[in-house]
Amino acid sequence: MPSGKSIWRSLLLSRVLGSLLAIGIGLCAAGCAVVRSYDHELNGTLEQASLGSVDSAIRLLDASNPERTGLLYQLELGMLQRLGNRYGESQKAWSAASTGIQAAQAAGPFDLAKLMGAAGSYVVSDKLRVYQPHDYEQVLLLTYMALNYLAMGDFDRARVAIKQTHELEAEIAAARERQVAEVREQASRRGARSSFKELSGYPIETLDNPEVNSLRNSYQSALAHYLAGFIYEALGEPSLAAPGYRLANELQPEQPVLEEALAGLDERLAAPDDGMTDVLLVVGTGSAPALQSRQFNAPLIVNNRMVFVPVAFPVLTRSAPSPAVQLVVDGRNLALAPLTSIDLMARRSLHDDMPMIMLRATVRSTTSAALQYQAQSGRNDGGVALAAALIGFGIAALSSADDRTWRALPSELAIARTRLPRGEHKVLLQSLEGQQEVPISLSGRYAVVDFRLLRRQVFVCAPKATDAR
Description:
Layout: H1 4-35, H2 38-50, H3 54-64, H4 71-83, H5 87-106, H6 112-116, H7 119-123, H8 135-151, H9 155-190, H10 210-213, H11 222-234, H12 238-251, H13 256-263, H14 265-270, E1 276-285, E2 291-302, E3 305-316, E4 326-329, E5 332-334, E6 337-341, H15 342-377, H16 382-398, E7 412-421, E8 423-431, E9 434-442, E10 446-454, E11 457-461
Helix pairs in contact: 1-16, 2-3, 3-4, 4-5, 5-8, 8-9, 9-11, 9-15, 11-12, 12-13, 15-16
């Protein structure tokens, strides 16, 4: 008859093997998702777009996402469709993305467990989590949906979309405040590092520099608030236009075009129609910075044994400098005012997210270290030791930081504002890549024209003939 000790050992062995088997199955299923390089996939897609082949870019995007679902896929797809002037299709994709974001927000209040992610992200990688859009991506989604409506000549629906950005900013601010307190408490309880500055070898300067630190947060965009002011003005709502212009001034101070928008608001609205169009020209250059996964060996003590576990963290690559652009309309140079740097917003976002990322990384590291210790200490239980060793090394091999981010966004956004006669005009964009001349057609008292410069390729999202008032 087996002894109580042997029964206990058998039960323990069964539980350990069962747990390891479950992790092993998860590792096998997750392997493809974890080793997948989002940066590599999108580089090819954006390359095709920069050659002017939007359809080829979409085919590449679809090939990397055979299910053709998922929030990030919808974000990328919507931007590519917008570049091809397929505004209805773009809005459909972005509406699906927006609905997904709203459903997640409506599921309940701030929940640390939800932000920590699914069990797989604890053990293997953050890539196993359902994609959580960065704060700035959520706000820019609504901003670009408003720009789509403006390209279709629908100021009323553009107003609805831009108004939602104000509400979203308030929700993000409240959630961020709760998150900071929760993460700080959890990190203290688990003994997790909370500052990326403590990571040996991490390129701190990419996230901690005067330009990044000068941002109020990672989600308020001067473009979104200036655009709000412009839309409200076009619809004859000065009491709402003024706060939009004012906040844009606060977010991007000492820009004459922003100061003039606020100072001349009442005069413009009181002026009679003189056959001119008040046109806002938006110029987006480059593409949003890529995230890359890099590993750092972290020593951990488990039962008085030193084990080294490779810990992966995301690092934002240095974007290629956006080309200096000159904007010439009908032979007249217009000064471009830099309004929003998505590159800087992305860096501020990662800066603010790192405590949560490091908390999840600590849980993964501890799990991997415990499995390696089991392999080292399993003298008699050879099966357990072998399984633990295999799973421990599997976790180490698949450990990868989440490199997903909305890459089809521009890197930098600038604006110019002028008054032009209604009708046809020639716009010349000059940069080190060369110069491109594009025609635009204006009608009505207000219009927004959006240009996107990808290398030598210029995409124009111009308004249809309609009057806002």
